[in-house]
């Protein structure tokens, strides 16, 4: 069937999709919910598949784009799960003599899928070195589909996974091609990790951009030294309702920040592989993200 948009899907079903994606509704129940909204010759199974990610839509930058080089890399994580693997993207001209700023890219709660790899390549074409770690490394890595990825995600010790991302951030910042200026961008679960790293890394992190991520505890916000850019979708009530308290804490702690709530946008609006994608909101949020990194990662 043709690519669906959020406007094609009943609001109630999008809310159910959010519950399913975040592990609060099982697959069978969600498909049963889909059956309540089928029309014509459409089946519940077909509707379920239409709501699932299609990674062919995510490739904005080809894997063999001449502007970048890509490779797999493994990072030691002694405080976490031992090691964490990931996808390293560098501008083609980046060297130890021609250093560039670095950005850690943190995935959603499904592992290092093709959408996140493409986000890393997008950063590479903007003259940043990007590393996208796979939090599922300790359970075999991203399995090739989101259904299995979500199941594996539940099996990883969350505290150790956080240590893995911290190790990856420090490794990336210290690479010879890095200027030492580090940023982090994360989506959903990864947005929460971006906020967590802002707390944990202090002045070692220059900029953090959480897309619809959970805010850190208010009492931890004064530890943040990075410049924080927050993106939320207006319809993502589960998270957007917490933004005013986070903003107040950022302001009280004199943290450099900006925050945007995108009208009519859903949770996951930047992910261009699902019907929740909002092209206008995603483009604007990404423009602001690149501008933010340029401002805070390219200045002394």
Provide a compact summary of the structure.
The chain has 300 residues and is α/β, with parallel strands linked by helices. Helix content is 37%, strand content 20%. It has an 8-stranded mixed beta sheet, with helices on both faces.
Mind explaining what this structure looks like?
With 300 residues, the protein is an alpha/beta fold. It folds into 2 domains: 6-52, no CATH class; 57-297, 3-Layer(aba) Sandwich (Rossmann fold), CATH 3.40.50. The chain has 10 helices and 8 strands. An 8-stranded mixed beta sheet has the order 1-2-4-3-5-6-7-8, with helices on both faces. β1 (68-77) and β2 (82-91) form a beta hairpin. The radius of gyration is 19 Å and the shape is globular.
Q: Give, in order, the helices and strands.
A: HHHEEEHEHHEHEEHHEH
Strands of the biggest beta sheet: in what spatial order?
A: 1-2-4-3-5-6-7-8
CATH architectural name of the largest domain: 3-Layer(aba) Sandwich
Query: In percent, how helical is the residue content?
Result: 25-40%
- Sheet/helix structural class: alpha/beta
Feature tags:
300 residues, alpha/beta, Rossmann fold, 8-stranded mixed β-sheet, 8 strands, 37% helix, globular
List the helices and strands and how they pair.
Layout: H1 11-21, H2 27-35, H3 44-51, E1 68-77, E2 82-91, E3 100-106, H4 114-125, E4 129-133, H5 146-153, H6 158-174, E5 178-187, H7 189-201, E6 207-211, E7 227-233, H8 237-240, H9 243-252, E8 257-262, H10 279-297
Helix pairs in contact: 1-2, 2-3
